[in-house]
Amino acid sequence: MNIRPLHDQVIVHRLDEGEQKIGGIIIPDSAKEKPQQGTVIAVGNGKAAKDGKRVPLDVKAGDRILFGKYSGQEIRLDGTDYFIMKEDDVLAVVEGRTGPNKKKKKR
Fold first, then answer.
1. What percent of the chain has pLDDT over 90?
2. Which residue(s) pair with 84 in the sheet?
3. CA distance 75 to 47
4. Which residues pair with 24 in a beta bridge?
5. Nearest-5° angle of CA 57, CA 80, CA 56?
6. Could you tell me if 38 and 62 are in contact, meaning their C-beta atoms sit under 8 angstroms apart?
7. Where are the beta strands (DSSP E) in the chain?
8. Which of 1, 11, 22, 51 lies 20 to 30 A from 81 at CA?
9. Can you name the residues that pair with 86 across neighbouring β-strands?
């Protein structure tokens, strides 16, 4: 994919959650809550400051991020769905281990 978002926009690929089952009932895709995590695919050059200089973005391609439930605009490129959103819609960058915290054994 050869695309470059403008200014403070980022392109995000939403992470798949897998098939949800509750009590043996398969929930249809239309009723599933979509994950609010994704991987940054591309970023713009940054916002223009009042003095005309560019302020670089805090996120970069490859970062795993959390974003708001109603953030961004869905787009389709080369048959794949992505989101394009402002950096302000990014809530956090996920770093390190992403699974649940495991308790350490006491010795």
1. 32
2. 11, 73
3. 22
4. none
5. 5
6. no
7. 9-14, 21-22, 25-26, 37-43, 47-48, 54-55, 64-67, 73-77, 80-86, 90-94
8. 22
9. 9
Closest to 44 in 3D by CA, of 31, 58, 30, 34 = 58
- Output Rg (C-alpha) for the chain, integer angstroms: 17
Residue 74's DSSP bridge partners are: 83
**pLDDT number for residue 20:** 46
Continuous H helices in 1-107: none
Q: Are 28 and 34 in contact (CB under 8 A)?
A: no
Single out the residue of 69, 9, 18 nearest to residue 41, CA to CA: 9
Residue type, 87: E
Q: Give the residue, 81 or 21, on which the prediction is more confident.
A: 81
Q: Name the nearest CA neighbour of 36 among 13, 68, 60.
A: 68
Helix/strand/coil for 12: strand
Distances (CA, A) of 61 to 4, 33, 82, 105: 11, 25, 14, 36
pTM higher than 0.85: no
